[in-house]
Design brief:
Elements (H helix, E strand, L loop, with lengths): L1 H37 L5 E4 L5 E7 L6 E5 L7 H4 L1 H7 L4 E6 L15 H15 L4 E6 L2 H11 L4 E7 L16 H16 L3 H15 L6 H13 L4 H8 L1 H8 L10 E6 H6 L3 H6 L8 E5 L5 H4 L1 H23 L3
Parallel strand pairs: 3-4, 3-5, 5-6, 6-7, 7-8
Antiparallel strand pairs: 1-2, 2-4
Helix pairs in contact: 1-8, 3-14, 4-5, 7-8
Length: 333
């Protein structure tokens, strides 16, 4: 009986190893094909002083206001992820969607993923483009960078709009598994267990129809390229260094609030607000401008995908209210 059990276990183990090997080889060759598919698929490039390229997409409009869209951690392409949001806001803003280093078509980097380096790279892009007034719109971890950026360049940031944005004090209420050091360990393990073995590619392919449906503005060609990006460079070295640096970045921003000159709109996930009591209140504490608002919307952390209509509607209403206040103030005797 023992020999039979050992034999069966050996067969199962060999089968699993063979299957993982096949998936890993498949992932290797499909990644090469994918990179050819999405090479220079969209946008333009700004080259940093260190010679690294940052991809950005510009959506022009008749508006004199500019909005910069920034993705959260682990995004495979801000360009595609924010396509519906960008097109929904394009009448109100000229839109710039940014793939930070390590995201989408932008280069990877060995440069430390500190909040100061991120802000320096983004400011270099905006200087290159010739804009010195703009609204920042950021999802998740981009909220942390935007908080620091607004304190570094308050004269340039017209407003900040956070989409379930990260904040320094979130470590006081987030679940244990969401603490920065624990997330780093989880993502590092996922890189080896799921991404490198090709298992992540299979899981992504099986769930991609639902993912694509959440971005209704994508064309069929866009969907193919976005799938290739989702499968190929997830949790790359740059992204892992970014999440590994999160704890230190939080400490650097821990005592910051938005300058009084910067109006802030936080659009928060109802799911996270239930999971973390005080989520909305902690965000309110960072707002010093009287026009600031915190609004809780139905949906999970990826609110811009799960509730894009609600996001667009609330941003346009808030933008119009700011414009009305500005007009009224300038017309006062």
């Amino acid at each position: 009986m023992k020999k039979r059990i050992l034999k069966i276990l050996s067969i199962v183990l060999i089968t699993i190893i063979a299957l993982v090997a096949v998936l890993a080889v498949r992932h290797y060759f499909m990644s090469k094909s994918d990179r050819e598919l999405f090479a220079d698929a969209y946008g333009e490039y700004y080259t940093t002083p260190d010679g690294e390229r940052i991809n950005y997409t510009f959506y022009d409009s008749e508006s004199d206001k500019v909005a910069v869209l920034l993705p959260g951690f682990g995004s495979s392409s801000a360009h595609y992820e924010f396509d519906t949001i960008a097109k929904g806001l394009n009448d109100a803003y000229k839109i710039i969607i940014v793939d930070p280093l390590g995201v989408g078509l932008s280069d990877e980097t060995d440069r430390e993923r500190s909040v100061s380096n991120y802000c320096e790279e983004l400011h270099g892009l905006m200087t290159y483009l010739g804009y010195d007034h703009y609204t920042l719109i950021g999802h998740s971890i981009a909220g942390l960078y935007a908080l620091d950026y607004s304190n570094r360049y308050p004269e340039e940031v017209d407003a900040f709009i956070g989409i379930d944005a990260s904040i320094p004090h979130m470590i006081e209420i987030c679940p244990k598994e969401a603490l920065p050091d624990n997330m780093y360990k989880s993502y590092k393990s996922a890189r080896h267990i799921l991404v490198d073995t090709g298992l992540y590619r299979v899981l992504t392919e099986l769930s991609y129809t639902k993912t694509a449906e959440m971005i209704p503005t994508l064309s069929e060609d866009d969907k193919k390229i976005y799938l290739a990006l989702n499968c190929t460079d997830q949790l790359n070295d740059t992204q892992l260094r970014e999440i590994g640096r999160l704890s230190e970045n939080i400490k650097l921003c821990y005592d910051e609030k938005f300058p009084e000159s910067v109006p802030v709109l936080y659009l928060l996930s109802n799911d996270n607000n239930k999971l973390m009591p005080g989520w909305d209140e902690l965000h309110r504490k960072l707002i010093t401008n009287p026009s600031g608002q915190v609004i809780v919307l139905e949906g999970g952390h990826y609110l811009h995908l799960e509730n894009s209509e609600g996001i667009i509607s609330e941003i346009l209403k808030w933008t119009n209210s700011l414009q009305t206040k500005t007009t009224a103030k300038t017309s006062e005797p």
